[in-house]
Amino acid sequence: MKLEMEIICQLLIAAALGALVGLEREIRRKGAGIRTYSLVTLGTCLFTVISFLLYETFALQTSTSFDASRIIQAVAIGIGFIGAGVIFHQGPSVVGLTTAAGLWVSAGIGIAVGIKQYILASVVTCIALLILIFFEGVEELIFKRKSKKEEK
Description:
Blueprint: H1 2-27, H2 34-59, H3 68-85, E1 88-90, E2 93-95, H4 97-114, H5 118-151
Antiparallel strand pairs: 1-2
Helix pairs in contact: 1-2, 1-4, 1-5, 2-3, 2-4, 3-4, 4-5
């Protein structure tokens, strides 16, 4: 019962951290928002927890080998496919790269929660939010200045 409650808490923490990143994307009216990011962190946390539970099961059997990191690796690759699906060409520009990168980082956050690295997951969530919020303003400032200089 204690293990199940711990896993439930891990899943809730992962979903909440994903929701924070998704909230920023939702505010900016991007295609992937709170639900998408929450589901990515929740899913990656779930796969990570399952991989470690399977490892504990198979570790007791000497005739079977099991590498939990393979499941985490497969999840990371799978998120790459989801990310690729949100990238589009619109004329000369590419749209969706930040969303794809955000989903990839969110998967890492879910994995971190799944291995009980709560501080790491929280710090990465804060860094991701800083990047998404602060760097957008920096980009606008730099590119507006460049375009004004080019006009002169």
